From TrEMBL:
Belongs to the bacterial solute-binding protein 2 family. Keywords: Signal. Residues 40-298 form the Periplasmic binding protein domain. It is found in: Cell envelope. GO terms for cellular component: cell envelope. Residues 1-19 form the signal peptide. It comes from Streptosporangium roseum (strain ATCC 12428 / DSM 43021 / JCM 3005 / KCTC 9067 / NCIMB 10171 / NRRL 2505 / NI 9100). This is Periplasmic binding protein/LacI transcriptional regulator.
């Protein structure tokens, strides 16, 4: 399920002086020293993307003078709910989190709202009908990422008359990126019946699971033409399985992934991955700007879409030396 949210780009990053009260005399935070305290619940440490995202949030908090209380949920929703309740108890100024799955958040978000603590969704979305439960959602348009992957595939195989057999490694079951990347890709390839998704299963965004599931796909399907993996890490795990089966990744099986972390970009430059759709983890600075405004009661856009691009093998070779993550 994906909500079409009118994407509002944050028009230019407004740098806020975090320390001290704003000109409006609004309080800068509960500590009384003008510093903001943020409670942040992170999904886990499942992928290279997540590691880069955590680093971006922690570095941006330090640069902005925000006191960060950080917790790693190890990809468990109950741990995120516990962390959010703990932040409410501690009376933090603002709560930010990346919901591991879309559903099941209304109760704890209502508790935050009743405690008058603003909540910011970062990276992933929730499917709560009550959008007053959070101030904004800062993150990628995952449906568009899936569309970009599908559009590249239709172009790559436009002259092929035979069926194109696709296997799909989905992200974490129930997560917004998995749901939306699947939907966007299906929409883009659905224009031509020659594209057939012959198997689709979660690899939980990890290399290990991606390898395990790809091994099973290869055993059950001798004629796979394409792998669509919802992130680089599962694609990299799948490459090990493909090579273990005596096939050539990028040649016998074209591989499309999403993220564009360094290891994925290296595999793209080496020709093992065929195309990568970027999903930027560098959300930290925008998150801190939005948090400062939310704490001061200033209005912020309901949706902030991160800007991102795509990479071919040639583009990866050029971009690799300057990649931040
Ligand atoms: C996307 C993010 C996803 C990445 C994966 O914004 O939530 O989770 O694509 C990560 O690599 O595990």
């Amino acid at each position: 399920m994906f909500k079409r949210i009118s994407a509002l780009l944050l028009a230019g990053a407004v740098t806020m002086t975090m320390a001290g009260c704003g000109g409006d005399g609004g309080s800068g935070g509960s500590a009384g020293d003008g510093k903001i305290t943020m409670g942040f619940s992170q999904v886990g440490a499942e992928s290279g993307w997540r590691t880069a995202n955590t680093k971006s949030v922690q570095t941006a908090a330090e640069a902005a003078g925000v006191t960060l209380k950080f917790s790693d949920a190890q990809q468990k929703q109950e741990n995120q709910i516990k962390a959010i309740r703990s932040y409410i108890q501690q009376k933090v100024d603002v709560i930010a989190f990346s919901p591991v799955v879309e559903s099941g958040w209304d109760t704890v978000l209502k508790e935050a709202k009743n405690a008058a603590i603003p909540v910011i969704l970062t990276d992933r979305a929730v499917d709560s009908k009550d959008t007053s439960l959070y101030k904004t959602f800062l993150g990628s348009d995952f449906v568009e990422e899936g569309r970009k992957a599908g559009k590249w595939l239709t172009e790559e195989f436009k002259d092929t008359k035979d069926p194109v057999n696709i296997v799909e490694l989905q992200g974490t079951t129930g997560s917004a990126p998995a749901n939306d990347r699947k939907a966007g890709f299906a929409e883009a390839i659905g224009t031509d019946p020659k594209f057939k998704v012959i198997a689709s299963q979660t690899g939980d965004f990890t290399r290990a699971k991606g390898k395990e599931v790809m091994e099973a796909f290869l055993k059950a399907n001798p004629d796979i033409d394409v792998l669509y993996a919802h992130n680089d890490d599962m694609g990299l795990g799948a490459i090990e399985a493909i090579e273990g089966a005596g096939k050539v990744p990028g040649k016998d099986i074209k591989i499309i992934t999403i993220d564009a972390v360094k290891d994925g970009m290296q595999a793209l430059a080496d020709g093992k991955i065929s195309y990568i759709v970027e999903c930027s983890p560098l959300l930290g600075p925008q998150l801190m700007d939005l948090a400062a405004k939310a704490v001061k009661g200033e209005s912020i856009p309901a949706r902030v879409v991160t800007e991102e691009t795509t990479f071919t093998q040639e583009q990866a070779k050029e971009a690799l030396p300057s990649r931040q993550y």
